[in-house]
Give the backbone structure.
Amino acid sequence: MSLVNKDKERYSFSKLSTFNDCKYAYWLTYIEHQKGIGNCFSSFGTEVHSIMERYAKGSLSLWDLASTYEKEFDTAVPEEFPSFPFCQDMRGLYYEQGLNYLRNFGGYPKYKILGVESQFDIDIDDWVFNGIIDLVYEDEQGRLIVHDYKSKSSFKNKAEQKKYARQLYLYSLHIKEKYGKYPDLLRFMMFRKETSVDIPFELDGLNEAVNWAKNTVKAIRTCWDYSPLCEEFFGNNLCNHRETCEHKI
């Protein structure tokens, strides 16, 4: 087990991704330390994630998942959902999709749960990567699986899937340290559609993710231009600084 130096710079996947998505948002969040506000999509995902965490830890029974969600939803997701021509009631759609997932969820009868919300720090070069892993378990075939909940309905394409997979590949560094081997499978549970996306672990994928993280840290350390860079939907609906950002589209 490595001993992490607490005085080193610390980076999470979210921190690294924010820099690549919008340097101005990175400046406001991690340099100016402005918390900003949440958004409906993240609040929705956090609520379902919270319920699944409580179930995996034994504080909620399988039969209480849906009723807990119904009771907590309005408080947990206070933000307004945007309206689109193809869906005038986005809030109702998301609510029903979350409820259906929890009603249909059958537990983990074939899995040996090894970790729930496992927090970790791990040294990379002269900095620390930290994260929280939603779920780690062995399936009936003895495969070690890293499981991550996602409120996305699907990945738009292979490039987006690769971008998200970097997170679980980086988490695999901790898995190797703790369990003596890399995971066999990286699993994204897309709970709105009640489907999962499984990515077999590959060393090439791990190396790509680690190099991406290292290069991002180098770019952060040498950055002097924090100009905004984000697309319109993100800037208007998802960015934590959308109410105060003077660059919003």
